[in-house]
Design brief:
The longest helix is centred in the N-terminal third of the chain and has 46 residues. Helix 1 crosses helix 5. The protein is an all-alpha fold.
């Protein structure tokens, strides 16, 4: 093995070692960042969104018949089907129906924080909600 082969092997081993020993810290940092995002989103949601969407995200803030479309129930797994984070970010940013566009008063980071918070409402992980594959039997 030549000098370049040895350098390549050393580089690969270095990356493996760094990844093996740093994963717990990265995971913990990610969890702390996620908690901070959710906590920030909760505060923003309570100040700006709960009046219409309800404090528990069930869509029972103002009477639903007063809004068109009525606020969705974030607690239902069905709400999350086929809705990407970017789609929901777009809705929060630009509004829909009588819901105002929040991009005028919230930063993109704050909007992502609100999205992180509302994803805590459903009884199941909204990232795990998937559509039933075509041709399969739904139960």
């Amino acid at each position: 093995m030549g000098k370049s082969g040895i350098i390549l092997c050393f580089s690969i081993l270095s990356v493996i070692c760094v990844n093996l020993f740093s994963c717990p810290e990265v995971s913990l940092a990610g969890e702390l960042d996620q908690k901070k995002s959710i906590d920030s989103g909760k505060e923003i949601y309570r100040q700006n969104c709960a009046v219409c969407h309800g404090f528990t995200g069930d869509g029972k803030g103002v009477p639903p018949e007063e809004l068109d479309p009525p606020p969705p129930d974030f607690t239902l797994p069905e709400f999350w089907k086929d809705k990407s984070n970017s789609f929901l970010f777009h809705i929060i940013s630009n509004g829909i129906g009588q819901m105002p566009a929040w991009s005028d008063s919230l930063t993109p980071e704050q909007i992502w924080n609100v999205l992180s918070y509302i994803k805590t409402f459903p009884k199941t992980d909204p990232n795990a909600v998937t559509q039933t594959p075509p041709g399969s039997l739904a139960h």
